[in-house]
Amino acid sequence: MSQNAVNRGTARLSLARFGELGLLAVLVALFLVFTFSSKYFFTPKNLSNVLGQISLTMVSAVGLSLLVISGEVDISIGSLQAVVALPLVLVMNATGSFWLGVLPALAVGVLIGIINGLLVTRLKINSLIVTLGMYYLLRGFVYLVTGKVPISDQSGKDLFFMVGNGKLFRFLPYMALLMIVIVVVFMYVLRHTTYGRRLYAVGGSPEVARAVGINPERLKLSAFILCSLLSTVSAILLASRLSSANHMAGQGFEFQVVAAIVLGGVSLAGGVGNLLGALIGVLILGLIQNGLSLMNVGTQYQLVITGAIIILAVAVDELKKRHG
Amino acid sequence: MNENDVILEVRKINKEFPGVKALNGVDLILRRGEVQALVGENGAGKSTLIKILAGVYRKDAGEILFEGTPLELHSAHDSLQRGIKVVFQELALVPQLSVAENVFLESFPLKRGGAIDWRAMNGKTQEILSSINLDLNPSRKVSSLTISQQQMVEIARALSHEAKVVIMDEPTSALTPNEVRSLFEVIRRLKALGIGILYVTHKLEEVFELCDRVTVFRDGQLVSSRAVPETNTNEVVTDMVGRAITTLFPRTHSVRGEPVLTVRGLSTDKKLKGVSFEVHAGEVVGIFGLLGAGRTELARAIFGLDPAIAGELELRGRKLRLGSTSHSAHAGLGLLTEDRKGEGLVLQMSVAQNMTLPSVREFARFGLIRAKEENSRSQEYVQRLAIKTPSLRHKVEYLSGGNQQKVLLARWLMKKLEVIILDEPTRGIDVGAKAEIHKLIDELAMAGLAVMVLTSEMPELLGVSDRILVMSGGRITGEFGREEATQEKILAAAIA
Amino acid sequence: MATSATRGQTFTRALVLFNELILVLVLVLISILISIGNPKFISFANILNILRDSSMAVIAGIGMTMLLITGEVDLSIGSLVAFVGVVAMDIINKTQSTALGVLAGLALGSLTGLVNGVVRTKLKVNSLIGTIAMMMILRGGVYIYRIAAVQNYHQKRAFFEIGNGYLGFLPIPILLMAILYLVFLVVINKSLAGRYLYATGGNPTAARISGINVDRLKILTFIVSSTLAAMAGVILVSRMNSGQPNSGQGFELEVISGVILGGTSLGGGEGTLVGSLIGIIIMRIINNGIIILGWNQDLQIVVSGFVLIVAVYLDNRRKVARAKIITT
Question: Which residue of B has its CA nearest to C191?
Fold first, then answer.
């Protein structure tokens, strides 16, 4: 066996590779289907829109993938998006500075990540339930504070607007560029750093990890923080697109992200999956949503389809587990 | 005797668990370059001692001296740091990671700049694997390996860092004879390097082939420690058991009836390969096999807990559906699982409720359970089996292991069964309760049931069975009647 | 006997041993606090109000308790309640028959339960994720069925009575709740089915070996649970007098928090209807108190989310404390 082959990462050599090829095929198929069923699909404007939308999802998906690989989950990231938009817009309105608004937003995001992480690792509460509780708690908090009225951006800062809406060469959204950078960086971290491999170890078998001196709790806490941090970034992008802090922002977003990454092979059991698969999953889901709205199919259908996809993706994941 | 030869010394170690004194004043000495075998029955204390040395348990009292200086171990990581490497029976690998990643899990080799040096890691892993004659691609996910390969990877991991003491707990339980030979070579090489090795095993032939010293544990105490050339199997076994084996098992001779359970060509996708045999009414068939041979898989497949991909089952001539537990249960099969807490008892339920679980329908009128009937029947069995419990309503999780096992046995006695499969019925149970359970097994057979006893304890196997089947690698590799069976023949079949 | 060194240990031990008693105390305490803020809280009329408002959650809570005992959960009941309301009202409008509308609503519930059960047992999808997905499907589904609220065009008396009528001084919803509660109390505690529920949740393998068809039992439990939730939905639509697609938001949260607070464990094998009843009423009292004290309604979700987290934490501590008790 040549040294090169030996050096290739683990993902290449198992069912995962098979799964990714399959997903890629699905992606290509969808692309073709939509191109032929709607004349608006394969236009620069639409494609650029799609890129923008999946960038939002993918940035959060990177963070959530890290967390799920480590064996936990966070379904409060949608509500988080609504919450962190508040300090962002409020401070921006008050000070007229984009960066001054970004700082407290990031701080709040990190804080929530720490709270979630501590509740799970210190108090040993199931992460699905904790973040479900947060899902409600944070959303309710936003309703309370805003009185269910969006807070619009009055600073008129160009930078704030550009972040979410600007495009390079009138085609490539800046959001997409940011997403690509984030994806590349974290792909590297997951694959080639000790931290990344330890995430897999902790998700795969926390007791074994502990026995060799890895601290699963600390690792998971860091993953919660990264997840919230990246969702904060996507929240800022979202606020930019909405030009406001909206109390409905991110409603249902968390389930979409979960569906996308599970579709892409990141197993909810932990220890399995990679960002390439997550990206394909996000693309597939994004294409479906885009294609459906082009065909004038309402969001209620998207909800149903997303739900069905979650069930299918997890069912297939379970099948793989039992026979892999 | 040169004092500097001693690498590890343990003095007056005590360790207690609720209700059990696992280690009682144990003294042990391990020298450099010595391979010392630790032997003893289940529960004698060997595993507890090595878990203490591994940093998994904390000792209650006593001292550990490593290279002459006292050692306090607070975690598994501590003992690893010192150079004490332990290879446990329960595999300590991360299945989703590759072989190389598992071998270097403690610290991955890094390039300058912090990235993992895959080339170095895979390369070094390949070297270690070659040195133990294991031909594997280091990038393979551990979950794709067989159990014996995984066990070898664990051993490879122990070799990846500088070790001063290597402790192995039943390392050959899942290995093929070739792998066992490779392992012995490795151990001899480690010996030559001056590393001290503690080797826990129940296979006495290995002790006499490989080890320099044999130390016997019994009931939490160190009973003897002799140089191997100066002793023999009988001496060691006597020390282990403390009494002549034959008197432990009162097997009354019974009449063998017609075949009750017939198994033909039973195969599962993971382990079993075409198993066929028969069990007769009134007969106790003992099934023996080493770790990974497929005993429990056999029990589960017969009962329908796991699906089968091929094979036939017949109960008194009538075909039995495979893969359906409700069918098996209603047809008259009973299963006492290996893991009584995880799979046998409903811990939150009471003694009575656990006992009656398969039979509770008999006490119901119009769907409602008659408590009086249920309780009086349960009381019968509590008395008959001498189960120690404050009341029938007591939650079963508060009972001792032996009494819990009795509750499970009562459960199956209460139901009218044709076939009962007992998987490790006396594991983790003190000697007194063991004898009682063996008597019960005898009674079951006398009552006309077809009884299968799956066990890894040789004395129990030899004492309790009318007929012995040996399994290895998912197949039946040997069959012996009670009179002709010997430990050697059985073991030979088990590693075939 | 180990000495309980810290107050924390004593607290959790008490929690295990006297669970229901403590809950009643909490209930009384909160009631007293609220009535200090607004004395009208303790009036007979308000208490009847609270009980009537709790009836929907309690009825759904009966099903949820059974489901949790078997080790599963159902997060789709909120969306289901909305769908049932819309469908029931629509059908009564179209057929002028209250009975048909109610039956249609209940049937929808049973069907949902069947699907949830099959997804769990045959597709092996974790029920938390699976019912979250179902929650999305149903919510999307109800909007597909009808975007705007379905108004009451039939004005049927029977329909009105379900949610708003009285038998003497007793509101009908309370009567329904009481009947269903008592029936299921007997079922869970004294019947074969109840015994099987606890066994299935406590140790599925042991249950299987004892001849219980675990898959079938779980599917049945899902069906019963969803049908009960549908019943709650029927009561709701009667009280609201219109089928609203956006109703039921947060309903699942209220029910689950209440049931877990009441001592039913997420792990399965444990739980009592009595505990669930008290837990749900505590949740209701909190929500009612928020309104009566004139606080912002949105506080309800915040408090419910918070209670859920606390309830699960206590559930965890209970489990740990029980493990410790065994070893003393």
Answer: B368
- Which of helix, strand or coil describes residue B66? strand
Residues B106, A271: C-beta atoms closer than 8 Å: no
Mind giving me the DSSP string for B67-83? TTEE----SHHHHHHHT
Architecture of the C19-326 domain = Orthogonal Bundle (1.10)
The count of C-alpha atoms lying within 13 angstroms of the C-alpha of A213, restricted to the half-sphere facing its C-beta, is 11
- Output the pLDDT for position B386: 82
Whether B390 has its CB under 8 Å from any CB of chain C: the answer is no
Q: What is the pLDDT of residues A211-269, one digit of tens each?
A: 888 899 999 999 999 999 999 999 999 999 998 899 989 988 988 899 899 888 898 88
Domains in chain B: boundaries: 3-242, 247-332+417-494, 348-406
Contact A211/B77, CB-based, under 8 Å?
Answer: yes
Task: Name the helix (H) or strand (E) containing A131.
Answer: helix A127-146
Domain with residues B3-242, CATH architecture: 3-Layer(aba) Sandwich (3.40)
Locate the chain B residue with the closest alpha carbon to A269. Answer: B96
Summarize chain A as % helix, strand, coil (round to 5): 75, 5, 20
pLDDT mean over B228-232: 88
**Chain B within 8 Å of A200 (Cβ-Cβ)?**
yes
Q: State how far the Cα of B102 lies from the Cα of B308, in Å rounded to an integer.
A: 32
d(CA B31, CA B416): 57
CATH number assigned to the domain with residue range A12-323, chosen from the 4 options 1.10.3470, 1.20.1740, 3.40.395, 2.40.50: 1.10.3470
Give the pLDDT confidence of B451-464 residue by residue, as tens digits. Answer: 999 987 777 888 88
pLDDT digits (tens, 9 = 90+) for A312-324: 888 887 887 776 5
Inspect the interface and report whether the beta carbons of B105 and A272 lie closer than 8 Å.
no
Supply C3's token pair. 């000495």
User: Which tokens hold the place of B87?
Assistant: 């290879």
| Residue reference for tokens 């075409």 | B274
Residues of chain A with pLDDT under 70: 1-19, 323-324
Higher-confidence position of A18 and B58? B58
Which chains are within 8 Å of C by 3+ CB pairs? A, B
Best to test chain B binding among A17, A18, A197, A267 (most B CBs inside 10 Å): A197
> Is residue C327 helix, strand or coil?
coil
What is the ipTM for the molecules in this complex?
A: 0.82
Minimum distance, in Å, between the CA of residue A102 and any CA atom of chain C: 25
C134 close to A (CB below 8 A): yes
Residue A67's CB is within 10 A of a number of other CB atoms, namely 32
- What is d(CA A36, CA C212) in angstroms, rounded to the nearest whole number? 53
Verify whether the Cβ–Cβ distance B348 to C269 is below 8 Å: yes
CA C293 to CA B294: how far, in whole Å?
Answer: 66
pLDDT, residue B430, reads: 67
Nearest to C264 by CA among C210, C324, C311: C311
Report CB contact under 8 Å: C211, B326.
yes
Is B343 in contact with C203 (Cβ distance < 8 A)? yes
Residue in C closest to B303 by C-alpha: C209
Query: Can you give the pTM of this predicted structure?
Result: 0.82
Would you tell me which residues 171-190 of chain A have a C-beta closer than 8 angstroms to some C-beta of chain B? 188
Phi, psi of B283 (to 5 degrees): -110, 145
B247-332+417-494: CATH topology: Rossmann fold (3.40.50)
Angstrom distances, CA of residue B19 to CA of B402, C1, C328: 12, 12, 9
Q: How far apart are CA B176 and CA C229, in angstroms?
A: 58
Contacts of C192 in chain B (CB under 8 A): 360-361, 364, 367-369
Q: How far is B112 from chain A (nearest CA, A)?
A: 12
List of E strands, B150-243? 165-169, 196-200, 213-218, 221-227
**C-beta separation of C68 from C264 below 8 A:** yes
